[in-house]
């Protein structure tokens, strides 16, 4: 909504189709995670937990790298799609042994909640820093931290399916 005439919504100051596409790409992220978790379950059954975890970590890492290096909105949307696929692979309860599955599910939810808290703290603090494009790229690339952790755990995961 344009705000040139003094009328309009103070909350929505942008009239950009690309910005709207990027903002709504969160839905793509969620759908990609949902679809990927279905495929990840099959991959885990056939090839085992190790390959599934490694594949999810590598795709998640690729998505964070693409988001960090993005030069246009299309790259950001594809990066979010890859991040969703990585989350879909990570969000599998059947990857855990049955006797500790519930504890790991609770841990997963705790990690998601802590991640939301950290993301909000980073967003709050980054609003005060004048960094422009460089700062936004770094913030988007921070998704590489959980991707690296997931990939490293995939490397040391036990080999039995």
Automatic annotation (TrEMBL):
Q: Where is the Major facilitator superfamily (MFS) profile domain?
A: 1-161
Instruction: List the GO terms this entry assigns under cellular component, sorted alphabetically.
Output: membrane
The reply on keyword Transmembrane is yes
- Keyword set includes Zinc: no
- Highest taxon in the source lineage: Eukaryota
Q: Tell me where in or outside the cell this protein is found.
A: Membrane
- A Gene Ontology molecular-function term? carbohydrate transmembrane transporter activity
Name the principal localization, coarsely classed: membrane
* Keywords annotated in UniProt: Membrane, Transmembrane, Transmembrane helix, Transport
Family matches, as PANTHER family? SOLUTE CARRIER FAMILY 2, FACILITATED GLUCOSE TRANSPORTER (PTHR23500), SUGAR TRANSPORT PROTEIN 11 (PTHR23500:SF460)
The protein in question is named: Major facilitator superfamily (MFS) profile domain-containing protein
Recorded source organism is Stephania yunnanensis
């Amino acid at each position: 909504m344009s705000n040139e005439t003094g009328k309009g919504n103070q909350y929505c100051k942008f009239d950009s189709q690309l910005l709207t596409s990027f903002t709504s790409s969160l839905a793509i992220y969620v759908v990609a995670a949902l679809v990927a978790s279905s495929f990840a379950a099959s991959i885990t059954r056939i090839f085992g937990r190790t390959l599934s975890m490694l594949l999810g970590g590598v795709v998640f890492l690729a998505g964070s790298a693409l988001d960090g290096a993005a030069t246009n909105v299309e790259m950001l949307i594809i990066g979010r799609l890859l991040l969703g696929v990585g989350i879909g692979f990570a969000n599998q309860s059947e990857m855990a042994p049955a006797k500790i599955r519930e504890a790991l599910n609770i841990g997963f939810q705790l990690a998601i909640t802590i991640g939301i808290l950290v993301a909000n703290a980073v967003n709050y603090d980054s609003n005060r820093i004048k960094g422009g494009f460089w700062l936004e790229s770094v913030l988007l690339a921070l998704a590489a931290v959980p991707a690296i952790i997931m990939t490293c755990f995939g490397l040391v995961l036990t080999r039995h399916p």
